[in-house]
Design a protein that fits this description.
- The protein is mainly α.
- The protein has one domain.
- The protein is 90% helix and 0% strand.
- It has three helices and no strands.
- Helix 2 packs antiparallel against helix 3.
């Protein structure tokens, strides 16, 4: 049941990513997709190796969310300067 809910969330966020006009909105939707995929991996593959894969995917999605936050901060600074 949880995997299906997460799958629906991923599909909705993918559609919103395609429809969004603003780059910052797209980045945030992609962030949600990344975290949801790590949860789906952890729930679907219920073995120790699956847990390792989910942890690795979660760490990389966390790094990407930090990059997104940094990019959004830079965009705000550039808008203020101009």
């Amino acid at each position: 049941m949880l995997i299906e809910i997460l799958g629906i969330i991923v599909v909705l966020m993918a559609l919103r990513t395609l429809v969004a006009q603003n780059r910052s909105e797209r980045l945030l939707y992609l962030n949600v997709i990344g975290f949801s995929m790590s949860a789906i991996i952890a729930l679907y593959i219920q073995t120790p190796f699956g847990a390792i894969i989910a942890i690795a995917f979660f760490i990389t999605s966390t790094l990407s969310s930090n990059a997104i936050a940094y990019s959004l901060g830079r965009v705000k600074e550039e808008i203020m300067v101009k």
